Amino acid sequence: MSGDDADTAPLDPTGDDARIVHISLDERTVIRRSAEVEQERAIAVYDLLEDNRFRPRDGGQGPYHLRLSIEENRLIFDVRDTADAPRTQVSLHLAPFRRVVKDYFQICESYYDAIKRLTPSQIEAIDMGRRGLHNEGSQMLRDRLEGRIALDHATSRRLFTLLCVLHIRG
Predict the structure, then answer these.
(1) Which of 7, 20, 98, 159 maximizes the CB count within 10 A of its CB?
(2) How far is residue 1's CA from residue 14's CA, in Å, rounded to a whole number?
(3) What is the pTM of this model?
(4) What 3-state class would DSSP assign to 129?
(5) Bridge-based pairing state of the strands 20-25 and 64-71
């Protein structure tokens, strides 16, 4: 296979090495988070490390360490090897995510408020909307990473949660 063929071949996020074994978030961009958001972050990180499928085009063989940060309105995927040596960086403009992240934050606030005062059926309706927006954001993330980082749906959902956490400015 020529070099050009390797560059156009679809990325395959399978194999024992196609995974993230360590993740860190750039906390410099975050001012303060609520207890609910902190819990969502902790769950996303835990679930991500337990089960993920992740392969960057230019990241070499895994497993990988991943540093997520926001710089100049871009989400930065800083992919490293297990010795923490740089492998590749992928950046995404955040502008396309602005609406879905804003809507997701609003529905999450409604959901957390609903848990305290509404009936289970009302909470379930809000939660369905919340899951729908979360799926929309995670699919947008997968689409925008296509050809650069391959990942499965569950990994994309968890990374979208972390994108939202990083997006909070206080």
Answers:
(1) 159
(2) 20
(3) 0.84
(4) helix
(5) parallel
